[in-house]
Amino acid sequence: MPPPPPRQEEEESESGGTVEKPKSSFTTYVAEGDKLYKKAEYRKAIDSYSTAIEIADNENADKKNCFVSRALCHLQMGDSEAALSDAEEALELDQEYIKGLWVKAEALYRMGDFEYALMFYHRGHNARSDYAEFKIGIQKAQEAIENAIGKEDAEELNAEGDLTMFYNRDTTQNYITFSEKRNKEKKQGNKGREEKKKDNKDNKSKPGGKASKKSSRRLLGEIYSDKEYLEMLFKDDVIANEDTDSGKKIKEYTSDALDYLGKREDFWRQQNPSSVHDKKQERTGSGRVITTAQQRRNDPGKYLIKQIEKVEEDIDKKKYKQAEKKSKDLISETNTYNENELPNKQEFLATLHSLYGTSLLEQEKYEQAEKEYQKDYDISEEENNFDGKSRALDNLGRICVKQEKFSKAIEYWETKVQLLNNKPPPTAASSASKKSSPSEDALERTWLYHEIGRCHLEEGNFSESKEYGEKALESAKIPDDAIWQLNAMVLIAKSEVKMEEYQSASESFGQALDLARAQGAKEAEKAIERALKDVNDNIVKGMKADENEAEAEEGGRSGDEGGEQQQQEKKK
């Protein structure tokens, strides 16, 4: 049986009547709300949380939890705006409240505001890289953006930096490295990109997206008939005749409406992809389905690519044990093939060792993961595979930071810098893969210089950390990336503080503050202002200390002169 409602007691109102007053405590109402939430009685749970919030003081540390709990109820009921409002109330009480950040990001995502949702998922992930929900959120927000506006445009949104390094010691975030990104694009090949361009071109004349009628009907439900009507209207050459003013307007309005519905379809597909994706099985020329066993026997390369994609999918879905087992089994299986059966066997093995290492890393099996990443590097080095070596060095440095082996991380990342300096020019054989632009290369160097500098800062090598901060700053200016310039400027300033070069640190923080204000990075702005105040206080203290020292020296000289005069008088 559900618990009885909290008892109320009456008190007189100003009008002479009576009003009910909560008698139970804040904790009781919260506990009641929690029970109702578990029973999926969200409306009643909201009432309980609301009463708890009303009787709680702002000093109550659990009040922010109550706002988040109520926000989760609103999300379950589909009221994303109310959830966003409650999340912001929680963050008003504690700006660094992790659950508040996550619920705010979720609410923005549900509202379809994918770019802002992605920003808050990243902000939360930077603050707590071990909080799994943020990584999941980053992935689904990026996919939603790519589906809504196209992958090529979406990539422009992902050049963010790590602002929290200034007030959070954590240097262990997981990065999707530049080389990994290029490898994924390489696997897709030119064919996929050309098909995508063709699809995008076709869709300009046919708004509403590429979804099949079957999946579209499933996603849109009752409003699918409206979409069909709009499509019919858009194709009607009489009603939507572009030679007339009214026809142009009708064409424009129906196009906008169909584009909007297409974007919403993509969003709902992200919410529940498994229910709308039609299974596509490979078939022979006669129409018979090709089984996995047949593909393994007839085309092991194609089979392994599919299995690798499944491992990557498991990692993305945080099924790390499953990914660990699959990648380990695939390594054993790949070793059974000879070079004739699988010409690029070593490249497959390097990739599988990398994935195996990542599945171990995410389970905090750091020593085992490091061994797998080292195998990836050794194979790639033997095969002279630039992308493989680049990927392995990224991962080796990252796992060393996880274990706070900063000097070792520096060695790996400096080796990668040398690798980039000796990067081979693209050949005809590699022309099918995407060439990295000068801006992308500069951003990769910026990230490397910045992370090497941070490791030096952790090791107490402050002049080196400043030097790499300056390198990161110069590199970030090539693509004119203001966020990475801000990160580099903060690293320089922190290094100068550690070296007690307060005047230089004040100037560096001042430049960082200008960059933060220009980017609207409010949290970074506040943190830099606090640091700038501390630096200026140290400058003032230093000036006062110098004045006191000067006065002491002046007093000493005066005392010496007075003593000499007394001695001369005694002699006389």
Can you describe this structure?
By secondary structure, this protein is an all-alpha fold. It is 72% helix and 2% strand. The protein contains 24 helices and two strands. The protein has helices at residues 26-38, 42-55, 63-76, 80-93, 98-110, 114-127, 132-149, 151-154, 178-205, 213-220, 224-235, 245-271, 292-298, 300-316, 320-334, 345-361, 366-383, 386-402, 406-421, 438-459, 462-477, 482-498, 502-519, 522-571, and strands at 8-12, 18-22. Strands 1-2 form a two-stranded antiparallel ribbon. Helix 14 runs antiparallel to helix 15, helix 19 (406-421) runs antiparallel to helix 20 (438-459) and helix 20 packs antiparallel against helix 21 (462-477). The chain is globular, with a radius of gyration of 31 Å. The N and C termini lie far apart (111 Å). Residues 1-22, 150-205, 272-291 and 428-434 have low confidence and may be disordered.
How does the SSE layout of this entry go?
Elements: E1 8-12, E2 18-22, H1 26-38, H2 42-55, H3 63-76, H4 80-93, H5 98-110, H6 114-127, H7 132-149, H8 151-154, H9 178-205, H10 213-220, H11 224-235, H12 245-271, H13 292-298, H14 300-316, H15 320-334, H16 345-361, H17 366-383, H18 386-402, H19 406-421, H20 438-459, H21 462-477, H22 482-498, H23 502-519, H24 522-571
